[in-house]
Amino acid sequence: MEKKIVYRIFTIADYEREALYFREMHAKGWKLRKVSYSILLFVVKYTFEKCQPEQVSYQLDFYPMEKSERASYIQLFKDCGWEHITDFNSFSYFRKAHSEIESDAEFEIYNDATGKLAMINRILRLRLVPVLLLLAIHI
């Protein structure tokens, strides 16, 4: 199995841009396998595996949860045709081949404003607010 390791910087607000990057890599014949920390501060390590070039939609979901909830959460996405790839830093990474997508609404996990807003609120509440509080304390 041929693999490629790429180091990139995406902020928590860049989840859509990150998914687009994975889509572009897959179209070039590299599918995402793993996301992990690198030894460099603020840089993430992405491991890709060689594959047939294909049009695939990638989506990220930010949903911190207990381990006991994990199986049913992943099964929910599997039932909708999404393949779970990996988890990293409370984000779950999914993909779905365009050939399996029957309508425009299926290109995204959250295809309505309410679902997207709920995910953004989780990101803000659990990632950004603590950072802002720490900054406020040190000022």
Question: Are there runs of 5+ residues with pLDDT below 50, and where?
Answer: none
**Roughly how much helix do the residues carry, as a percent range?**
25-40%
Distance from N terminus to C terminus (CA atoms, Å) equals: 50 Å
Q: How many domains comprise the coordinates?
A: 1
Helix count, DSSP H or I runs of 4 or more residues: 3
Number of strands: 6
What is the molecular shape? globular
Q: What integer is the average pLDDT?
A: 85
Q: What percentage of amino acids are in beta strands?
A: 25-35%
- Specify the biggest β-sheet: 3 strands, antiparallel
Give the topology string: H per helix, E per strand: EHEEEHEEH
Instruction: Quickly give the structural class.
Output: alpha+beta
Backbone CA Rg: 16 Å
Strand order of the largest sheet: 1-3-2
Any overview of this molecule?
- This protein has 3 helices and 6 strands; from the N terminus they run E-H-E-E-E-H-E-E-H.
- Strands 1-3-2 form a 3-stranded antiparallel sheet, with helices on one face. It has a 3-stranded antiparallel sheet with strand order 4-6-5.
- The chain is α+β, with helices and mostly antiparallel strands.
- This is DUF2812 domain-containing protein.
- It comes from Streptococcus pneumoniae.
- InterPro entries: DUF2812.
- Pfam families: DUF2812.
Please sum up the structure shown:
The protein has about 140 residues and is α+β, with helices and mostly antiparallel strands. About 35% of the residues lie in helices and about 30% in strands. It has helices at about 15-25, 65-80, 115-139, and strands at about 5-10, 30-35, 45-50, 55-60, 85-90, 90-95.
